[in-house]
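hey so i finally got around to running the thing on that chain from the lab meeting. sorry it took forever, my laptop kept dying and i had to restart like 3 times. anyway pasting the input first so we r on the same page abt which one it is
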Amino acid sequence: MLDDEEVPNYHEDDVQEARKLVEEMDDSALISDVLDKRPSSSETIENVIIVDNIPVTDSSKLVKLTNVLLKIFSKCGKVETHHIPLDDNQKTKGFMFIVYRNGQEATNAISSCNGYKLDKNHCFAVNRLSDFEHCMSIPDKWEDPKPEPYKPQANLKSWLCDPECFDQFAIVHGKNRNTAVHSCGPNQSISVQQREFWTESHVKFSPKGSYLATCHKQGIALWGGPEFSKVGRFNHPMLPISNSHLVKDIL
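ok and heres what got predicted. didnt touch it at all, straight out
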């Protein structure tokens, strides 16, 4: 404890200056370490889903309805919070909001519960809140898309123009999935095209030789022309790329 003689003599101007300094400081200066850990709005909105087509009932049955819904959606992740809006008559409006811990759990809920039949009259429609806001932001006035400049397609029959009439074949080798296309020369093969990581499994020529198909986890890519430029692709996530017969059926 300070003696009377040791008590600091604060000047009124100093006190006013200190108060002014505190008032001018924003949150980023006072609690910067906390704000650095604060999730951005884009991150948190990805955790929120909207569940449409829930039963419309009065407030007397709200607790029971909430328990049933949370039991279903808690299987997809930890529900941080939820909200079921009520109208002026204290009845549910037929939809609810659910907030998960992260975007992956929200994705799990969309994959598992979209189209879920609660009963014969209620089938859930589950969407991410960010997708809903994107749809709401679409302008009402239609604007014609801008035409893209024409790009001539590569000659898919270029290999038939070979004066020696050599056929082509493709092989995949090495740990980097090196893919090589060769022509069948009279004495030895002639390299036409070589690329690393061109495929994640195997390659396959189309029946008439117009395309070379490469297989990937996200689908199939088609290549053609003298330089084997990309012609198109078929999106098919989690494609069983080891099954060449299935790839042929999909094409």
